[in-house]
């Protein structure tokens, strides 16, 4: 005996975001401008609900609107905050100026280069390394959505003795704020240097993990997010995510 499962209609903007087409806010903009069709019909209201298996397409203007959104990679220096400014500290986005661009091309920079540019994930004020800033909701969702599978790699210099028991706990067995951490991949590279590969990003997670096993972090550098590496990007410099470069 078979049962037909009824699929509850849902708001089209939410469905577009779930599919990774764009962020919900971007979907609402696309709908308001008349650039979205569902099952061949133009959608004229953000309140429209469609079946979860609806065929959603974008007009050419909508595709162009999304492709104009930039994603920037920054080698964030120590002393800059990732997101909201804090008293006495500048936000990382303040470094996205023409004179800090690494290997600039002859092409002129977009006038609205930093408009809507937001960090996709945090990197605390005392840490350096790869920080992604993006206008693209699809990139943000991939990197910081609740179901993200993108891993992040860090090189961490510590004070204190590294031993097998501490490494076992760092890999799996610690909790923060009363919640167990997901398994990590932590290995010793040198007597005072660890490599961390994480699949989550709790606040000051690595520093707090190390403190739980009696280690003090003296330098923390993020060197990779998914398939995108910091590479030779100089300290304090930024570049555009290259075409075809995927996380």
Evaluate the radius of gyration: 21 Å
- Strand % is 25-35%
Would you tell me which CATH topology of the largest domain applies?
Alpha-Beta Plaits
Enumerate how many helices there are, as a single number.
6
Order of helices and strands: EHHEEEEHEEEHEHEEEEHEEE
**End-to-end gap:** 44 Å
- Per the principal axes of the C-alpha atoms, what is the gross shape? globular
CATH superfamily of the largest domain: Pseudouridine synthase I, catalytic domain, N-terminal subdomain
Helix content: 10-25%
Mean pLDDT: 90
Largest sheet: 9 strands, mixed
**CATH architecture classification of the largest domain:** 2-Layer Sandwich
The parts where pLDDT drops under 50 for at least 5 residues are none
Oligomer: single chain
Q: Strand tally, please?
A: 16
How many structural domains in the coordinates? 3
User: What class, by secondary structure content?
Assistant: alpha+beta
Which structural traits does this protein have?
single chain, 247 residues, alpha+beta, Structural Genomics Hypothetical 15.5 Kd Protein In mrcA-pckA Intergenic Region, Chain A, Alpha-Beta Plaits, 9-stranded mixed beta sheet, 3-stranded antiparallel beta sheet, 27% strand, globular
């Amino acid at each position: 005996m078979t049962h037909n499962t009824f699929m509850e209609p849902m708001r089209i903007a939410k469905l577009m975001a779930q599919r990774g087409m764009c962020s919900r806010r971007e979907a609402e903009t696309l709908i308001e401008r008349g650039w979205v069709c569902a099952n061949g019909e133009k959608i004229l209201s953000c309140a429209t609900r469609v079946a979860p298996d609806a065929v959603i397409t974008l007009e050419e203007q909508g595709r162009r609107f999304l492709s104009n959104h930039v994603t920037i990679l920054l080698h964030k220096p120590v002393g800059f905050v990732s997101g909201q400014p804090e008293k006495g500290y500048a936000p990382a986005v303040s470094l996205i100026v023409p004179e800090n661009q690494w290997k600039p091309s002859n092409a002129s920079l977009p006038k609205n280069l930093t408009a809507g540019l937001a960090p996709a994930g945090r990197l605390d004020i005392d840490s350096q390394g790869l920080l992604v800033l993006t206008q693209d909701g699809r990139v943000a969702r991939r990197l910081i959505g609740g179901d993200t599978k993108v891993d992040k790699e860090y090189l961490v210099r510590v004070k204190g003795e590294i031993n097998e028991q501490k490494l076992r706990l760092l890999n799996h067995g610690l909790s923060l704020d009363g919640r167990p951490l997901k398994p990590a991949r932590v290995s010793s590279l040198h007597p005072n240097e660890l490599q961390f590969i994480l699949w989550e990003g709790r606040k000051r997670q690595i520093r707090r993990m190390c403190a739980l096993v009696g280690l003090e972090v003296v330098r923390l550098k993020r060197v990779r997010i998914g398939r995108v590496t910091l590479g030779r990007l100089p300290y304090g410099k930024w570049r555009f995510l290259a075409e075809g470069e995927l996380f």
